[in-house]
């Protein structure tokens, strides 16, 4: 059997050394009524047979991301440099445990320190942790930080946030007995006045996403001011790639920033694993969830890294911990760190710039088509909502035959009767965008 | 391998920054040179418009993010060198109790990197992702078979996330019956995530004591359960490596009070094909696929924590749920369903950590029913064998056989002047990763050892030999134990300094 090294002679010798007559002696603490028969599973497949089986299964996925895909909505396709994948696949990163023994974990620890540094640079905030699961649970963790920091039990959230993140906030707030108030979507963005009407002295935090689900940039400075005036925190959720170009959470007055570092070299994988990030102002450091790495020195005075401020964590504080998180998404954060290093100061900005310009080219051409229009005015990054002459779902389905994944249907969402959410990145060449435009024109009729 | 330069030699060669402590590997920021770059991108192929027309300056960031500026070879060397500072399963034995650090097959990594799996976008229409949906659906069935449960959700991103999800399912179940239950019972030997997850799910935690045999004190449990009890969370075998022999009575006690029984699957590796949590009376379980189904730990994650439930709790599972339709000709069609009125809702973005679920699927198909059963039996055999080699050297708090892991106490060595921390730091000099230590909390100077089934007899013999040699060094009072480790890339680290003066990010000097 694969991966099991023992010969029958090994097993016999070991049982003899233990001093028992057989395995049944060792399993005897289990009541016999609870012993189970053979597991109802398909028989084992050899490696060649299994590869053939998996290949057939994979071919039932008839489309995949690529130049003709315009899907975004929280998961973005970008080119992944060969060096990034090769380095992140090293067994020393992949098969290492959590760095509880820092003397033999300096690789993971230093990568995490570098990751924290880069997340602070991108967000313009003071401190970051080693990672969370994803943006959605990141929003929930940030909300809990605010609830604990303010001793208040109401959270106000923008209706323009990714509907998945909103759904997760609903679940978490329900289980904690917290009140969640949703600011209705106005013209594709929330109005700060509308938000202000929901924010009172019972409010722990205002949460918004920018660019929001529809791709538009929210008036974050006003939202932060509203939150702060009421003694609440402002939490922003952002695609970190956009932060190489746009005003940072620190600049707009956010107290906490969360999001997903998936755009930084992490494959789409039908939704995970990705890498949630969280960054905050220094004053919130001791309320941060999860692992944090700090630099120190060893007994010989050399720089060395170690997990620190551990009294926030579940294995020490148990029910009084700042969060229940234990395993995080360290390997995904490692991939993102290598990506950010490889692309570098200029390269990350260049990717954002290509996305921005190609998306605007696509938006202009689509908006010029009969029956199509941009759903809402306003500056956007690499994603935009269009109103469509037929249902977004019908248009998307029709274009599948051409191998085009045209976008995410927005039918009946956020004030859009029929529409599509379209994302363009550096992976989409002009000819791909033109093919999308042509397809949209033809299916309009 | 990495050669770690002597800091003094580095200073002599003019490389060291005099104000900073010398580093084995500089940070990427210190390696940067303005203007240097590794990346390669296509030229802009659409008409260029002024940036101000697209994004007004008032909405753009002020200064650029200070990311590294280094060449491709520098990137490769930096991260290769960092990787070489890590201990890993590929490099050595990891006897970490309750962590199940078994071998991570290379086949899994090859499969998961295939573009037809890796490049599927989570918003693709269901009909274009039938392969992925079929794989996930069948993995759910596999996990139901292993656990004896009626239904599984694959969404939770880690064990703790699974616990949180499972407890929210229990909350929804009680609420559906109009009951407001406020307490979750947790044994004193439980993993820290159990009480933390109970608190995250809005419950008050009540601790259940262990008896002298290292198992749940059933008498105490009877006194603690009642109308406020929402659930008892239990790991079985428990963190002392012992099977809860009174599990049927425990289940009866909790169920009679109207509570649900929650199974922390951290120790599932002991029981596959031997016994099933569903048969023991558990209503909700989570499995750690990064332990039992050997998806890699990645330096702390990502993991996956699928949650299984009995039929009465299936309506409360998070959305989306995969539904299967059979076409009558042997064909199957899958779709994601959100139409679940009693669901607790969403617990994360997208469907789950699918890249890892694919690895778990591959593992179950490679092992088959006989292989998984043999894996658990060999895991139990290895733990008992290693325990038999070490029980004379250390104090054995729970004499007799164990399941897949066991605990020892270093209290004898403590009296001789070396704490368990010292003993395991010395293990590093012998080339081994330490076991889990100071957990469970009920054992003084605890060492918690889980060898897993993928280690051969020679490795166990050599590891036991190292621990015995260290015990001898402790008896002799050798200073090497207190000074250990010395053969690692860095020596013991000033943790107090790290906490007192947090340095959590690199900043340009000056």
Helix content of chain A: 25-40%
Unreliable stretches of chain B (pLDDT < 50, length at least 5) are none
Discrete helix count of chain B: 17
Cα shape of chain A? globular
Structural class by SSE content of chain B:
alpha/beta
CATH 2nd-level architecture of the largest domain in chain A: 3-Layer(aba) Sandwich
DSSP E strands of chain A, number: 13
* Main sheet properties of chain A: 7 strands, mixed
CATH topology of the largest domain in chain A: Aspartate Aminotransferase, domain 2
Q: What's the CATH class of the largest domain in chain A, please?
A: Alpha Beta
Largest sheet of chain B: 7 strands, mixed
**What spatial form of chain B do the alpha-carbon principal axes imply?**
globular
Count of discrete structural domains of chain B = 3
Structural class of chain A: alpha/beta
How many domain units of chain A? 2
Q: How many beta-strand elements of chain B?
A: 12
């Amino acid at each position: 059997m694969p991966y099991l090294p023992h010969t029958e002679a090994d097993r016999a010798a070991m049982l003899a050394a233990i001093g028992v007559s057989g395995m049944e002696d060792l399993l005897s603490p289990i009541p016999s009524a609870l012993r189970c028969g053979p597991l109802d599973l398909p028989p084992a497949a050899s490696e060649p047979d299994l590869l053939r089986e998996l290949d057939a299964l994979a071919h039932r996925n008839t489309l995949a991301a690529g130049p003709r895909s315009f899907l975004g909505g929280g998961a973005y396709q970008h080119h992944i440099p060969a060096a990034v994948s090769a380095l992140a696949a090293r067994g020393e990163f992949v098969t290492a445990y959590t760095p509880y023994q820092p003397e033999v974990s300096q690789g993971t620890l230093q990568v995490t320190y570098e990751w924290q540094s880069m997340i602070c640079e991108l967000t313009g905030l003071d401190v970051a942790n080693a990672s969370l699961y994803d943006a959605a649970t990141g929003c929930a963790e940030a909300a809990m930080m605010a609830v604990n920091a303010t001793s208040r039990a109401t959270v106000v959230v923008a209706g323009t946030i990714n509907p998945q993140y909103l759904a997760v906030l609903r679940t978490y707030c329900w289980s904690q007995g917290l009140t969640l108030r949703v600011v209705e979507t106005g013209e594709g963005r929330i109005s700060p006045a509308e938000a202000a009407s929901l924010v009172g002295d019972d409010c722990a935090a205002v949460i918004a996403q920018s660019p929001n689900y529809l791709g538009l940039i929210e008036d974050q400075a006003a939202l932060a001011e509203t939150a702060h005036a009421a003694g609440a925190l402002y939490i922003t959720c952002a695609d970190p790639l956009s932060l190489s170009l746009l005003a940072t959470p620190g600049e707009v007055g956010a107290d906490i920033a969360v999001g997903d570092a998936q755009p930084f070299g992490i494959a789409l994988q039908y939704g995970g694993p990705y890498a949630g990030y969280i960054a905050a102002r220094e004053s919130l450091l001791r309320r941060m969830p999860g692992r944090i790495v700090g630099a120190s020195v060893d007994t010989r005075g050399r720089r060395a890294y170690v997990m620190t401020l551990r009294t926030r964590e579940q294995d020490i504080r148990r029910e009084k911990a700042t969060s229940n998180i234990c395993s995080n998404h360290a390997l995904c954060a490692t991939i993102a760190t290598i990506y950010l290093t490889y692309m570098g100061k200029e390269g990350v900005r260049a990717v954002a710039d290509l996305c921005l310009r190609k998306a605007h080219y696509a938006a202009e051409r689509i908006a010029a088509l009969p029956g199509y229009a941009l759903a809402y005015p306003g500056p956007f990054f690499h994603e935009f909502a269009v109103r469509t002459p037929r249902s977004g779902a019908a248009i998307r389905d029709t274009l599948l035959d051409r191998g085009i994944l045209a976008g995410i249907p927005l039918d009946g969402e956020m004030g859009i009767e029929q529409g599509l959410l379209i994302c363009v990145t550096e992976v989409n060449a002009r000819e791909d965008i033109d093919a999308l435009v042509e397809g949209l024109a033809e299916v309009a009729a | 391998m990495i050669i770690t330069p002597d800091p003094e030699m580095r200073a002599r060669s003019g490389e060291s920054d005099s104000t900073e402590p010398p580093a084995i590997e500089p940070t990427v920021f210190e390696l940067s040179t303005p203007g240097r770059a590794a990346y390669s991108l296509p030229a802009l192929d659409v008409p260029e418009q002024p940036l101000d027309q697209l994004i007004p300056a008032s909405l753009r960031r002020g200064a650029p993010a200070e990311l590294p500026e280094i060449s491709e070879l520098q990137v490769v060397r930096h991260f290769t060198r960092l990787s070489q500072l890590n201990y890993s399963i590929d490099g050595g034995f990891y006897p970490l109790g309750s962590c199940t650090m078994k071998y991570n097959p290379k086949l899994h990594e090859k499969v998961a990197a295939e573009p037809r799996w890796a490049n599927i976008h989570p918003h693709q229409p269901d009909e274009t992702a039938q392969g992925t949906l079929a794989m996930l659906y069948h993995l759910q069935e596999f996990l139901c078979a292993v656990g004896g449960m009626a239904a599984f959700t694959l969404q939770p991103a880690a064990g703790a996330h699974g616990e949180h999800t499972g407890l929210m399912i229990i909350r929804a179940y009680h609420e559906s019956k109009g009951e407001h239950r406020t307490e979750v019972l947790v044994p004193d030997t439980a993993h820290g995530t159990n009480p933390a997850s109970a608190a995250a799910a809005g419950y008050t935690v009540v601790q259940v004591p262990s008896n002298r045999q290292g198992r749940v004190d059933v008498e105490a449990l009877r006194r603690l359960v009642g109308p406020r009890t929402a659930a008892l969370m239990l790991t079985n075998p428990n963190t002392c490596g012992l099977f809860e022999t009174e599990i049927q009575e425990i289940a009866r006690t909790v169920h009679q009070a109207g509570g649900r029984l929650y199974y922390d699957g951290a120790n599932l590796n002991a029981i596959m094909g031997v016994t099933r949590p569903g048969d023991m009376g558990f209503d909700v379980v989570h499995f750690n696929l990064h332990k039992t189904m050997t998806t890699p730990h990645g330096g702390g994650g990502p993991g996956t924590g699928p949650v299984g439930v009995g039929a009465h709790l299936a309506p409360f599972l998070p959305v989306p749920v995969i539904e299967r339709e059979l076409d009558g000709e042997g064909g199957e069609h899958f779709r994601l369903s959100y139409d679940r009125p009693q669901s607790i809702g969403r617990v994360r973005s997208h469907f789950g950590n699918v890249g890892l679920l694919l690895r778990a699927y591959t593992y179950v198909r490679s092992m088959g029913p006989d292989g998984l059963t043999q894996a658990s039996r060999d895991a139990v055999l290895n733990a008992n064998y290693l325990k038999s080699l070490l029980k004379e050297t250390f104090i054995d708090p729970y004499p007799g056989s164990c399941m897949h892991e066991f605990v020892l106490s270093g209290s004898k060595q403590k009296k001789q002047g070396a704490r368990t921390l010292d003993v395991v730091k010395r293990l590093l000099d012998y080339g081994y990763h330490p076991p889990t230590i100071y957990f469970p909390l009920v054992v003084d100077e605890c060492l918690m050892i889980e060898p897993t089934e993928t280690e051969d007899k020679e490795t166990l013999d050599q590891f036991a030999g190292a621990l015995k040699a260290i015990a001898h060094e402790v008896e002799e009072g050798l200073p090497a134990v207190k000074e250990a480790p010395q053969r690692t890339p860095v020596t013991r680290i000033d943790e107090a300094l790290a906490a007192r003066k947090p340095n959590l990010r690199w900043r340009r000097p000056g």
